[in-house]
Amino acid sequence: MANNNEFLEFNNAMKLYELDIFTLGKMADEIRQKKFGKKVFFNSNRHINPTNECADICKFCGFSAHRKNKNPYTLSQEEIFKEAQKAIEIGALELHIVGAHNPKLDLKWYLELFSNLKAKFPQIHLKALTAAEVNYISKLANKSYQEVLELMAESGVDSMPGGGAEIFDEKIRDYICKGKVDSKTWLDIHGYWHTLGKKSNATMLFGHVESREHRIDHLLRLQKQQEKSGGFNAFIPLVYQKENNFLKVEKFPSGQEILKTLAISRIILENIPHIKAYWATLGMNLAIVAQEFGADDIDGTIQKEAIQSASGSKSANGILKEEIISQIKDAGFIPVERDSLYNEIQTY
């Protein structure tokens, strides 16, 4: 069976890619159905990206202000509050706040932002700052990441997103995102966040210069971290977006390769509750198909998105909740609106 420990050994995990897609899909779907039946989860959320001015130059990124994006911006806190107000008025239950590594926005600025957002909108779930941002801000503030995480929690941050993981292999990181948080520190930051009683997500960026071996290594490291700290809510395999960046990738993964990777994620990461087929990088059609291959979530309404859309995704203006519900129903699944911690709000 797929739900035993044999696939937690590297060579056995690699053999999963050798299976035909239908066998692999069935194995992953058995795990998914056992956990959630035909439910597909989504939430009403709003992405707010405070800045695209970045000290780092990641080769895969089309979002940060650089030679291919000559429109740098940094939002004021007032502008962020206005965006949050509008989002909440049309139904957002979560604010997802991630951006660039901007030296002008220090720890004090972020803590004030979080405290003020919570004071103005106490009902909102605040999901904020990737481990890469935490690492950068901690160095900027000359504080440990542990101190930064504790201050974030005190200032009202409810959970952390999973960005910045990319691929854990350090040789690949050195090529695609040199200078960014290293893989061990990324895992340690999430591990410490979990000790504070908080939840987070995990990601993997794939479909660029990495190999299948690198993906398996990444998944196994996440599995081990979850065994230790237990705080990952969901795993999100992010498909590399190819426009407006400096990675010269000539061969992109097929739909089958993407679905295989999603299915393998479900099989290896049985100790992480949810697998999210993030429609902003997959497109809605493939995200729905992925629900047959181990995924049980498609993210949410988003409302406005700047990071993936800067590299070619069609996610800039989000998607209506009614459209999400319709697509899930048409595919034969049960749409379930959830909050950020996967408490079920309404079944449609």
UniProtKB/TrEMBL annotation:
Co-factor note (free text): Binds 1 [4Fe-4S] cluster. The cluster is coordinated with 3 cysteines and an exchangeable S-adenosyl-L-methionine.
GO BP terms, alphabetized: menaquinone biosynthetic process
Enzyme class: transferase
SUPFAM superfamilies with a match to the protein in the record: Radical SAM enzymes
Pathway: Quinol/quinone metabolism; menaquinone biosynthesis
Chain positions recorded as S-adenosyl-L-methionine binding sites: 60, 166
UniProt xrefs under Pfam families: CofH_C (PF19288), Radical_SAM (PF04055)
Domain Radical SAM core: 40-273
Cofactor(s) needed: [4Fe-4S] cluster
Binding site for [4Fe-4S] cluster: 54, 58, 61
A GO term, aspect molecular function: iron ion binding
Reaction(s) catalysed (UniProt annotation): 3-[(1-carboxyvinyl)-oxy]benzoate + S-adenosyl-L-methionine + H2O = 6-amino-6-deoxyfutalosine + hydrogencarbonate + L-methionine + H(+)
Record keywords, A-Z: 4Fe-4S, Iron, Iron-sulfur, Menaquinone biosynthesis, Metal-binding, S-adenosyl-L-methionine, Transferase
PROSITE patterns, per the entry: RADICAL_SAM
Enzyme Commission number(s) from the entry: 2.5.1.120
UniProt-listed CDD domains: Radical_SAM
HAMAP family per record: MqnE
Family note: Belongs to the radical SAM superfamily. MqnE family.
Function: Radical SAM enzyme that catalyzes the addition of the adenosyl radical to the double bond of 3-[(1-carboxyvinyl)oxy]benzoate, leading to aminodeoxyfutalosine (AFL), a key intermediate in the formation of menaquinone (MK, vitamin K2) from chorismate.
Protein known as: Aminodeoxyfutalosine synthase
